[in-house]
Design goal:
189 residues, alpha/beta, Rossmann fold, 7 helices
Length: 189
């Protein structure tokens, strides 16, 4: 029997209902454990190098040149994707399309879970995606796919991602890229 309220509607409970919270400043979330950021970055890099079809999903906060930080982050996202040999699938416009949408025909960033299914994506990075959208999308992905999700969030992070790194700005992205290059050498990729 379903419980009353939002948790009862989901066949798979969201992380918050399992007591998983976003990490405090200076820490990261790796599955359900709080770890140092560098440990999470290394594990995220390993996943990007070892799982099928690594993909980066950049959102409007890095796709549009609305300030100097966004411009720098966009360049770093491109470099990061090159290091990982990952595809880039932009999530530039995720407003609902009313009155009706056929998601099987319009597999686009509005439906990241369908994009993941149809492209057999086993690992992805969300970066520059507005938190309200990332939260919903990551809950759907967690419930409906086996994709290893990495959230590089500029704010507090996302408890439904496999790995969540909070407060990720240009300096932190540069560090992540350096760690990814080290992991790549270690894995001889």
């Amino acid at each position: 029997m379903a419980k009353l309220g939002p948790a009862g509607y989901s066949p798979y409970p969201v992380a918050l209902y399992e007591g998983i919270l976003t990490p405090p400043p200076g820490k990261a979330l790796l599955f359900t454990e709080l770890v140092d950021e560098e440990i999470a970055m290394r594990e995220a890099a390993k996943a990007m190098f070892t799982r099928e079809n690594p993909t980066v999903f950049p959102g409007p906060q890095v796709l549009y040149a609305w300030n100097e930080e966004a411009k720098k982050k966009a360049q770093l996202v491109r470099k990061m994707a090159e290091v990982f040999g990952a595809r880039i699938i932009p999530m530039y416009d995720y407003r609902p399309k009313y009155p009706k949408i056929d998601p099987q025909k319009e597999i686009n960033p509005n439906h990241p879970n369908l994009t993941i299914w149809h492209n057999n994506i086993k690992v992805c990075i969300f970066i520059g995606v507005h938190c309200h959208y990332a939260n919903v999308a990551l809950k759907i992905i967690r419930a409906e796919t086996d994709c290893y999700t990495i959230a590089l969030c500029g704010n507090a992070g996302h408890e439904d991602a496999t790995v969540t790194l909070r407060d990720q700005h240009s300096e932190e992205l540069e560090k992540f890229i350096r760690i990814a290059e080290e992991v790549k050498r270690e894995l001889k990729k």
